[in-house]
Amino acid sequence: MTPRIPATIITGFLGAGKTTLVRHLLQNAGGRRIAVIVNEFGSLGIDGGVLAGCGIEGCDEDQIVELSNGCLCCTVADEFLPAMEALLDRPNPPEHIVIETSGLALPKPLLKAFTWPAIRSRVTVDGVIALVDGPAVAAGRFADDPEEVARLMAEDPAYDHDNPLAEVFEDQLGSADLVLLNKTDLLAESDIAGLAAGIAAQLPRAVKVLPSRESRIDPAILLGLGAAAEDDLASRPSHHDGLDDHEHDDWESFVVPLPAQSAPEPLIARLQQTAAVHDVLRMKGFVAVEGKPLRLLVQGVGSRFRHEYDRAWAPGETAGGIVVIGRKGLDQAAITQAIQG
Ligand SMILES: Nc1nc2c(ncn2[C@@H]2O[C@H](COP(=O)(O)OP(=O)(O)OP(=O)(O)O)[C@@H](O)[C@H]2O)c(=O)[nH]1
C-alpha cells in the first residue's frame, strides 16, 4: 500500500498568524514538496496573494491552491475534496499538504472530510495546529462578556449561546494537537507562562502550548506529529456536535475600494481610527501608492496595523481595496466613508 500523504490543518482566529506560519513552513521546507490549500473569509484572495507572491525559492505558484468560497467547512464536498483529489492526482504529488483555514472556520467539519473513503485511503491528518493571538487572549477578546450575556438573556430567556468569538475560538482549540501562543513580542515576558497555562487548562486533551513570535517554530516540531486526527474525532469537541449544519450569520465582510494613495501613513491612520470606532476584527488588502511600482500590503488585526511593499502589481491587477471583517451589523457606509477619507 502506498503510504498516505500527511496533511496539517492550520486553524486560529482572524489575524492570529496562520498565513505567517504557512510562509515560515514554506521558507523552511528543507526541500520537502509542500502544497498549500488556503481559504479565507472575505473576497480579494489576500492570503493566497501573500503566499503566491512570497518569492520563496523553490516555491511555485502551483503549490498554492486557493479556495475562494469564504467557508471551507461549508464547502467541503464542492470545493475541498475536488481540490485535494486534484493535488493527489498530480504526476508529482506533494509530500506534505498544509491547509490554512479561514479565521472563522470551524475545523471539525473539515476534519470529518478526512474520514471520507476517497480521502482516507490516501491522506492522513498529521496534526491540527491552532494559532492563538496572544495579546487578544490577554485582552479577554474570546472570553464571554458577562454583561453581554446578561443583556441577551434579558431579551431572550432561552438564550444560551456563547459570544460567537468565544465559540469559534473554543472550537478551534478543541480540535488542536498543538497550540501556538503567538505574538509574544506584544506580551509582557512575565505573562506568557500564565497565559499558556490558562489556554492549556481550557483544552479537552493534554496538548502542548508553545509560545511563538511571528509563528516561528521549527517545522520539525510542527510537521510529523502523526496524530491521525481523522481516527480521533470524538475527543475533539465542537459547539456544533450533533448539528447537521452551522451558519456564518454572526459575521460579515465587504471590500472598500481605494484609489492610489499619496502615502501609506494617512491611510493607516484612517484605518486605525475606523477599527477603533467600529469594532472591526480584521482588515487587509493591497493598495497602490503614487510613484511606487510595488503594491502596498496592509494588514490590520483589531486596531494594530502593519504595512509593507510586497511586490509589483501584475498586469491587469491595478484596483486596490481593503477587506473589512467583523461581527454582523457593521455600518458599511460609514466604514467605507471613513476609510476612503
Ligand atoms: N507583532 C506581531 N505581529 C504578528 C506576529 N505574527 C503575525 N503577525 C502579524 O499579524 C498580522 C496577521 O497575520 P496573518 O499571518 O496574516 O494572520 P492570519 O491568521 O493568517 O489572518 P486571517 O487569515 O485573516 O485570519 C500580520 O500583519 C502579521 O505580520 C507576531 O508574532 N507578532
From TrEMBL:
Matches recorded under SUPFAM superfamilies: Hypothetical protein YjiA, C-terminal domain (SSF90002), P-loop containing nucleoside triphosphate hydrolases (SSF52540)
Keyword set includes Heme: no
The keyword Chaperone belongs to this UniProt entry's keyword annotation: yes
InterPro entries noted in UniProt: CobW, CobW-likC_sf, CobW-like_C, CobW/HypB/UreG_nucleotide-bd, P-loop_NTPase, Zinc-reg_GTPase_activator
Coiled coil location: none
Entry-linked SMART domains: CobW_C
Catalytically driven reaction(s): GTP + H2O = GDP + phosphate + H(+)
Keywords attached to this entry: Chaperone, Hydrolase, Nucleotide-binding
Gene Ontology terms, MF aspect: hydrolase activity; nucleotide binding
Domain of life: Bacteria
GO cellular component terms attached to this protein's record: cytoplasm
GO terms (BP aspect): cobalamin biosynthetic process
Chain ranges of the CobW C-terminal domain: 251-341
Entry similarity comment: Belongs to the SIMIBI class G3E GTPase family. ZNG1 subfamily.
Known function: Zinc chaperone that directly transfers zinc cofactor to target proteins, thereby activating them. Zinc is transferred from the CXCC motif in the GTPase domain to the zinc binding site in target proteins in a process requiring GTP hydrolysis.
Annotated protein name in UniProt: Cobalamin biosynthesis protein CobW
Originating species: Acidisoma silvae
Gene: cobW
